[in-house]
Design a protein that fits this description.
The chain has about 325 residues and is an alpha/beta fold. Helices cover about 45% and strands about 15% of the residues. Strand 6 and strand 7 form a beta hairpin. Helix 11 packs across helix 12.
Length: about 325
C-alpha cells in the first residue's frame, strides 16, 4: 500500500467518528503532512477535541490533551525540575508538551506566561527549562481549539503566536441532516451496536515519509508568482483597489507565503497529484491568511472581515501568464 493510499485510510478512519466537517478533517491532514500547527475556532460542542484525538489514534502517535485555564502555569505544560528526596538532586520531569500531537484545548483562556512558553515549543520544536534546552518529538504538532472571543473568560492570542499557526480553521454548526446522523451514531455506540474500529494503518514514520514526498512536489513558476503576489497584496491593498486603502493595519509576512506553499502542496498530494495548481493556492488561502490580517479601525468601521477581504484579493490578484 502506498503512503497516499494509507492517508485515504486515515480519512476513512476520521469519518467513522466525525460526521461532516470535511474542511476540518482535510485541514488536519494537511497539518499532519506539513508539520504545521492548526487553530480550530468555533462554539463548544462541534467535535473539535474528538477530531484531534481521533487523528492521533489514526496515526498511532503519542497524544496529550492540555486544558488551558486562567491559573495554568508554564511548568504545568513544559515540565519542571523536581527535587528527589532520596538523592537531594533535581531531576527534570517532562510536561505534556513532550508528545507527538498536543491538543491545546481552549488555548485562549491561559495567561501570557503560558502563551510565551508555548510559543518557543511551536516555533522551535524545543523547550527550555532550568537553563537546559530539550528537543520535542520530530512529528510534534499543536492543534489548538479556541472559543470565540466574545465568550466570557477568553483573551486574544498575541499576534506572534497567531502567526505560528499555519492554518486557522473556523467551524460552523452541522446541518440538520448531519446532526441527525450524530444522534443515530451516538445511540448505536451507547447500545454497543457500532463498535469503533481502528481502520488506519499509519504510523508516525509513515507521516514523516509522507512529509518528504509533499516537499518534493513540483511547483511551477507561475504558481509561485501567484502565491507570492497574493500574500504581498495584503501589504499594498491601495495599489490594487483605492477602496481598500487603510483597511489593514498589518498585512501577512513571508511566513504566510511559506505556509500557503506547504498547505497547497499537501492538498495537491492528497488529491493524488505531483504538482500544485493555482486552484490549490486559492482554496487554502483563507485558512492561511485570516489570522494574519489585522484589520484597522477604519476597516472594521466599514464592515470588512478578514474572510471578505481575502475573497476580494482572490478576485483582484490574477495568475501570471
Amino acid at each position: 500500500m502506498s503512503t497516499q493510499q494509507a492517508f485515504m485510510g486515515l480519512k476513512t478512519h476520521l469519518q467513522k467518528t466525525i460526521v461532516g466537517q470535511e474542511a476540518l478533517l482535510e485541514r488536519m491532514m494537511i497539518a499532519m503532512l506539513t508539520g504545521g500547527h492548526v487553530l480550530l475556532e468555533g462554539p463548544p460542542g462541534l467535535a473539535k477535541t474528538t477530531a484531534v484525538k481521533t487523528l492521533a489514534k489514526g496515526v498511532h502517535a503519542s497524544f496529550q490533551r492540555i486544558q488551558f485555564t486562567p491559573d495554568l502555569m508554564p511548568g504545568d505544560v513544559m515540565g519542571s525540575d523536581i527535587l528527589d528526596p532520596n538523592t537531594g538532586s533535581l531531576s527534570f520531569v517532562k510536561g505534556p508538551i513532550f508528545n507527538e500531537i498536543v491538543l491545546a484545548d481552549e488555548i485562549n483562556r491561559a495567561p501570557p506566561k503560558v502563551q510565551s512558553a508555548l510559543l518557543e515549543a511551536m516555533a522551535e520544536k524545543q523547550v527550555t527549562a532550568g537553563g537546559q534546552t530539550r528537543a520535542l518529538p520530530e512529528l510534534f504538532i499543536v492543534m489548538a481549539t479556541q472559543n470565540p472571543l466574545e465568550q466570557s473568560g477568553t483573551y486574544p492570542l498575541p499576534e506572534a503566536q497567531m502567526d505560528r499557526f499555519m492554518l486557522h480553521v473556523v467551524l460552523d454548526y452541522p446541518t440538520e441532516t448531519e446532526e441527525l446522523e450524530i444522534l443515530r451514531r451516538d445511540r448505536a455506540k451507547h447500545y454497543g451496536i457500532d463498535k469503533e474500529a481502528d481502520t488506519s494503518s499509519l504510523t508516525p514514520q509513515n507521516v514523516l515519509d509522507a512529509r518528504r514526498e509533499v516537499a518534493e512536489l513540483h511547483v511551477a513558476e507561475p504558481v509561485e508568482k501567484y502565491l507570492v503576489a497574493l500574500v504581498a497584496a495584503t501589504r499594498k491593498l491601495d495599489e490594487l483597489d483605492d477602496t481598500l486603502k487603510a483597511v489593514l493595519d498589518v498585512g501577512a509576512s513571508p511566513r504566510a507565503s511559506l505556509a500557503l506553499l506547504h498547505a497547497a502542496s499537501a492538498y495537491a498530494w492528497l488529491q493524488g497529484r505531483d504538482f500544485v495548481t493555482p486552484d490549490d493556492v486559492a482554496r487554502l488561502a483563507p485558512d492561511v491568511l485570516r489570522h494574519r490580517l489585522a484589520l484597522s479601525f477604519a476597516g472594521r468601521a466599514q464592515g470588512w472581515t478578514p474572510d471578505q477581504l481575502i475573497a476580494r484579493l482572490l478576485e483582484l490578484v490574477k495568475v501570471p501568464v
